[in-house]
Write a structure and sequence with these properties.
- This protein is of the alpha+beta class and 242 residues long.
- The chain has three domains: 1-38; 47-133, Beta Barrel (OB fold (Dihydrolipoamide Acetyltransferase, E2P)), CATH 2.40.50; 145-238, Lipocalin (Beta Barrel), CATH 2.40.128.
- Helix content is 19%, strand content 44%.
- The strands form two sheets. The chain has a nine-stranded antiparallel sheet with strand order 9-8-7-6-14-13-12-11-10, with no helix packed on it.
- A hairpin with a 4-residue loop joins strand 8 (164-169) and strand 9.
- The chain is elongated and about 60 Å long.
Amino acid sequence: MREILNATITLALFISCNSSTDKRVGTKTSITQKESKAAPAIDKTPQTFKGLFKNDKGTNTFRDCNDTGKTYLVRNSSDSISQAYKKATEFLTYSGETVYAEVKGYLTGKSTSQSAVGYDNELIINSVHELEQKNYKTFCYDFEFIALGNEPFWSVDIIPTEQKIVLKNVASDKVYVFPYRPANVVGIVHRFETKTKNDTLVILIKKEKCSDGMSDRSYNFSAEIAINGETLKGCTIKKGIW
């Protein structure tokens, strides 16, 4: 009986020791896995970024033109970007207007914070090389049409990627921002019609030769704009086509 009892005690101690060893091994493995998931160091070497910058209700964003249109949340940027943005948008601007920007900075990685939801990364801007309002020459500006007129001077940007149609009337010093509505295309005529609570806009873009009357430049599209009963006539540039 005593031999049986001694054997039982020995077996119990053996099982207990093995169990303790397994727990220690498991804990060590768990710690090693956590350590391996540590965030990599941020490379703060300044790089050049080209894209569309905007300040919309205090939130700064940057759509990268060189990286398939990824959009970054701008954090702790230098004050120079804010000053340059104000200067670039001081003439006939509207809330949340994007401007073309060339800046130097670095990416910090995608954040999990609530304010960063929907953005591909976060960008720190160290310095500003260039900031200007968009135009038909801006290589990554995805407009559909830009219509231009003289006497009076005006322009209409049709921007499906931003879901906007924007009319800037220099003569009346007014900017109208309308929701984008796709054109009704009949033959060689594109007809856009959109409205807000107070304003109605109709745009007729026709594929035909057009001259702006002030230069030797020739366009392939004409434009006729009707805004609140006023008619404006000019020429049009289609993205990639004069």
